[in-house]
Design brief:
Elements: E1 2-11, H1 18-27, E2 32-42, E3 49-58, H2 63-71, E4 76-79, E5 98-100, H3 104-115, E6 121-123, H4 129-140, H5 174-184, H6 201-217, E7 221-223, E8 228-234, E9 237-243, E10 246-249, E11 253-255, H7 262-271, E12 275-277, E13 280-289, H8 290-298, E14 315-317, E15 322-329, E16 333-336, E17 346-349, E18 358-367, H9 369-372, H10 379-394, E19 401-405, H11 406-410, E20 429-431, H12 440-456, E21 466-471, E22 478-480, E23 495-497, H13 508-525
Parallel strand pairs: 5-6, 5-11, 6-7, 11-23, 19-20
Antiparallel strand pairs: 1-3, 1-4, 2-3, 8-9, 9-10, 12-22, 13-18, 13-21, 14-15, 15-18, 16-17, 19-21
Length: 532
């Protein structure tokens, strides 16, 4: 048995292994092995410390409860490696389960099904990662936009181009399984220990390809350039999906199409699927020089070899609505993330080394149905589209994004140059006003927030920092309602909406976990598939 001893603090220059002996002493045991469980950096209060949690594997199982009881310390707790065992069902499944979408939710749903003998059929609208990379590179360098395969659509989903951040607030045992699976397929094993695990867009692509190969080796099928456009429903139950004009029989399908699959939202709404508008946020990307963020966070320790590039997460509430930073990318780039022609959308990403000159994050403001003026299930989606099209026009109708220095933004005047921080948005920027591409309640709240954030991180409100926008795809603006236990659509039996697009996740980790849960409900109900 094992215990976790957390809250071990050591100096920035101390060897991490010194924490192991400190944990043994704190727990009062020596008859054990020890290893680092999690590690983070605390840069608060003008000093830098490493904060380490240690796992102690006890040789005498009887000691565990005695240690925890005797110490009565919230930093000493039992550790149990939780496994999610699934008892297979017995109901005959006439056709292979279908997984629609191959982002984090779809990947882990398909992998879980394949591992258990269900031979899933995966249908992905976009291209495999290598072809997708080429299409994205062409667009970034000024080429034609591909509405089928881009930053949002294709192997890996939006998560493949959003930094590979694996931080999550959900306390699900499946999180550890996801991390271990990613490592097994080539992710660096430090994600198992980091408090804020991160793979990097460059490494994540190889991990995704490796998982796909395993799914296929286990009898699954993965088809690209395969957009699902319709569903056949009889007596309230799924009977088939229509893909590339072909009707594919199925009685169970995992819908993991992501937060930008607007065609699917419209199709399901037209079929009467129960949906509702979901809260989301909009704003713009802010860029600073990474070295300035490091100095602000680490002070005299900035540049120390033991310190990662500085990152932050900031919140502000004006009393009317919250504003917060989102998807912070140390040493990263702002990317062109449109999924439809004639729109401009920004996002951020970093490579594994996070060694780019700029840091960027979204500064976004909550959007409510009252702001939109309608509670129609698709109204928030149409609201996003409205401002994405406005941004396209404001940038000159060629996918340039509007950029503005923070000083000009605060003074509500247009920018004409960027003397300090150079924007990294790859299609090029048009100097202008962020107010021209976002509603005033958002930009006014952003102004208050940026000044507030400048009090928390010196230089956040630096005049030469750059805003580029809009950022509109923080999360899905739609929730497809589903049963709490079966996860099926409330009025379409056999259709399992899951992941971020369905409104049940936010980020790679929670989407992957939801994909596993979707697979588990299929496994618990049906017997494995024989497709031979």
């Amino acid at each position: 048995m094992s215990i976790i001893v957390s809250g071990i603090r050591i100096g920035i220059d101390d060897d991490d292994n010194s924490a192991l002996e400190m944990a043994k002493t704190k727990a009062g045991v020596s008859d054990c092995s020890a290893a680092i469980y999690k590690k983070s950096i605390d840069a608060r209060h003008g000093t830098i410390t490493k904060v380490i949690s240690v796992i102690l594997n006890l040789y005498n199982d009887k000691d565990e409860q005695n240690i925890i009881a005797d110490k009565n310390d919230s930093n000493i707790r039992q550790y149990t490696l939780k496994t999610c065992e699934i008892k297979k069902g017995s109901k005959n499944l006439g056709a292979a389960p279908i997984v629609i979408g191959f982002g984090p939710a779809g990947i882990f749903a398909a992998l879980t099904l394949a591992r258990n003998g269900y031979r899933p059929i995966v249908l992905e609208k976009g291209d495999p990662i290598d072809k997708r990379d080429a299409a994205t590179a062409r667009f970034f360098s000024g080429g034609e936009f591909d509405k089928r395969s881009n930053i949002q659509f294709g192997e890996g989903g939006a998560g493949a181009y959003s930094d590979g951040k694996l931080t999550t607030r959900i306390g699900d045992a499946r999180c550890d399984a996801v991390l271990q699976e990613l490592c097994r397929h080539g992710a660096p094993d430090d994600i198992l220990r980091a408090a804020k695990p991160h793979i990097g867009t460059d490494l994540l692509k190889g991990v995704i390809k490796s998982i796909r190969k395993e799914i296929v080796s286990l009898g699954g099928s993965v088809y690209f350039d395969s957009a699902v456009t319709d569903f056949e429903i009889k007596n309230g139950s799924l009977r088939s999906v229509v893909c590339n004009g072909e009707r594919i029989p199925c009685e169970v399908a995992v819908l993991a199409t992501g937060h930008s699959a607007r065609d699917i939202f419209r199709t399901l709404y037209g079929m009467g699927a129960e949906m509702q508008q979901k809260a989301f946020a909009m704003g713009a990307r802010i860029e600073h020089r990474q070295k300035d963020i490091d100095r602000a966070l680490y002070g005299k320790f900035a540049g120390h070899k033991a310190l990662p590039p500085g990152e932050y997460m900031l919140t502000f509430n004006s009393g009317k609505r919250p504003c917060y930073t989102f998807c912070m990318c140390p040493g990263g780039n702002v990317v062109a993330a449109a999924s439809e022609e004639g729109t401009v959308v920004t996002n951020g990403m970093s490579a594994h080394k996070r060694d780019g000159e700029n840091a960027n994050s979204a500064v976004v403001v909550a959007v409510s149905p009252e702001d939109i003026g309608s509670r129609h299930p698709l109204a928030a989606m149409e609201y996003q589209i409205k401002y994405e099209k406005m941004a396209f026009e404001a940038g000159g109708n060629d996918y340039k994004a509007i950029s503005q220095t923070v000083s000009d933004f605060l003074l509500k005047r247009g920018s004409c140059a960027f003397p300090d921080v150079l924007p990294t948005y790859p299609r090029g920027v048009a100097a202008g006003r962020i107010d021209d591409v976002l509603p005033s309640y958002i930009t006014d709240t952003m102004r208050e927030a940026i000044l507030n954030f400048g009090k928390k991180i010196k230089g956040f409100d630096s005049p030469g920092a750059v805003l580029t926008g809009p950022e509109t795809r923080t999360s899905s603006p739609v929730r497809i309602l589903r049963d709490k236990w079966t996860l099926e659509s409330l009025n379409i039996s056999g259709l399992i909406p899951c992941g971020e697009g369905a409104g049940y996740a936010g980020g790679i980790m929670s989407a992957a976990v939801d994909g596993i849960r979707a697979a588990e409900v299929i496994i618990s109900k049906f017997a494995p598939v024989d497709r031979d």
